[in-house]
Queue: 2 jobs
Job 1
Amino acid sequence: MSLIDSHCHLQHFEGDERERVLDAARAAGVTGFLVPAVRLDQGDDLLAFCHAHDDVWCALGVHPHDAATWQDGDEARLAELLRDPKVVAVGECGLDFFYDHAPREIQEHCLRAQWRVAIAANLPVVVHNRESDEAMLAMVREPEFAALGGDFHSFAGHAEMHRELLARGFYFGFSGMVTFNKADNIRALLAATPLDRILVETDSPFLAPVPYRGKPNQPAWVAAVARRVATERGMQYDDLCTGTADNFVRLFARAQ
């Protein structure tokens, strides 16, 4: 059995704590970790961390909250970083119209730039989408992004968007939200997602699953997410873990 946390922000844990949460996750049966950047200036630190651990990979990119940090020349800088084999995707990139920490037109400009780099590098993307379903769909439909693939992490979009993204070949990350009492919409999306498109994640240190609500999330608790996903789908836990790990390796092909 393999169990992979497909989205955990280990850069939020500092020094020895980062190693402690990794060790705790391994003790809980977690065999792999994908750490998405939120700014390009995290790239060197994340790469050094990944190279120190055989079971850790990263995605490099700029989160929509930090889209205003994107500058001319960052396309070349990102493309250079992507040459490292420990980088398996571009991200975390996307749109967030809930917080609007960056103007929406800047978010869209930053996202298009990153998607172009991902396509040129033949890498998938890790996408953040919050309260931006229609704008995101409009971008996905743009002809230059027809070849785009990747993971919509902690997905909570509407059912029509989910169907279109499925048809376009995207994968979906399910986080601790699947355990929340009022998250029937997330469980409905899970039920509508084929097994071969499901990933499990923590989004650590955010979105801690039941029974850990209110605490800083950690990668070990992806096991609680996976158990709930398995229960919702009427599957054995080990089979769910193996299936989602296979999906991870298929999507993030460098993670071998």
Job 2
Amino acid sequence: YQGGDYPNPDYRTVCSGVTGHTEIVKVSYDETLIPTREILRVFWENHDPTQGNRQGNDIGTQYRSAVYWTTAEQADEVRKTHDEFSAVLHAAGIGSITTEMHPAESLTFWPAEDYHQKYLKKNPFGYDCHAHTGFFLPA
């Protein structure tokens, strides 16, 4: 969880909507093996960044779209790909991006409980809420 101000959040309190946290995935990677732009392409294209506080049937502030960066280079790529993807969505007549964008160091990261990690592996009949929008960033 990240983006809230409640200490030691857990799934129950995050779902209550009072913590301000969103459910996130912390991505560690080697820029020499996969560029930040590629990770952001997957981010923008595999969810609906225009829905505000929801993703599909999951509704609440904990389901808002958010991206947090750790370097100035990542910040530049986030803003650049946001603008590019926004233009693609606008040209297709789709709503504006509502994704929250901030430096990660200003927000404490809290790992989710073990039972909430690798959810689809542990719940093979769980669902996949990703939108797979079909809109792509230019290479």
